């Protein structure tokens, strides 16, 4: 085998070893990392995601009011717990305690994922839908049978 062939084989092995598992994830996972903003009439929703490894993302969510005051914050994480099985955790500060709400993936495709926690009033389901590398929607659904409507946020990546 020539030196060039050996070098190409070695480089390919390194690239697949380093990036192979991430690239085999659905589109929505590959492009989640970054800072995302959605402007609404209530203010600006911001999500910031960071890949910790191939199967774990950590994030922060916040809402800035129209007067630029932080009105809401949460810690977020998404973890792979099997092939196309994901867990979404929201850690909410509540008074002097923290409350964790865990959602499980109930529908996964290349461009979208739905996380569900049927006992939670709102949201009972959260759907992330990747529209492109720099645009996604997040739709929050109420518990079945409850009054209320879904809320759709249209996010645009502002930084990676």
Compact description:
With 160 residues, this protein is an alpha+beta fold. The chain has a single domain (25-159), classed as Calycin beta-barrel core domain (Lipocalin, Beta Barrel), CATH 2.40.128.20.
Descriptive notes:
The chain has 160 residues and is α+β, with helices and mostly antiparallel strands. The protein has a single domain (25-159), classed as Calycin beta-barrel core domain (Lipocalin). 16% of the residues lie in helices and 57% in strands. It contains two helices and ten strands. It starts with a helix and ends with a strand. The model is unreliable at 1-23 (pLDDT under 50).
Topology (SSEs and partners):
Layout lengths: L2 H21 L3 H4 L3 E6 L3 E11 L2 E10 L4 E13 L2 E10 L2 E12 L3 E5 L8 E8 L2 E7 L9 E9 L1
Antiparallel strand pairs: 1-2, 1-10, 2-3, 3-4, 4-5, 5-6, 6-7, 7-8, 8-9, 9-10
- Biggest sheet: strands side by side, in what order? 1-2-3-4-5-6-7-8-9-10
Distance between the termini: 41 Å
Radius of gyration: 18 Å
Shape: globular
Judging by the overall fold, what is the CATH architecture? Beta Barrel
CATH topology: Lipocalin
SS-derived structural category = alpha+beta
Instruction: Provide the CATH top-level class.
Output: Mainly Beta
How many structural domains does the protein architecture include? 1
Summarize the main sheet.
10 strands, antiparallel, barrel
Helix amount, in percent? 10-25%
Show unreliable segments: 1-23
CATH superfamily: Calycin beta-barrel core domain
How much of the sequence lies in strands comes to over 45%
Mean pLDDT rating? 81
Helical segment count: 2
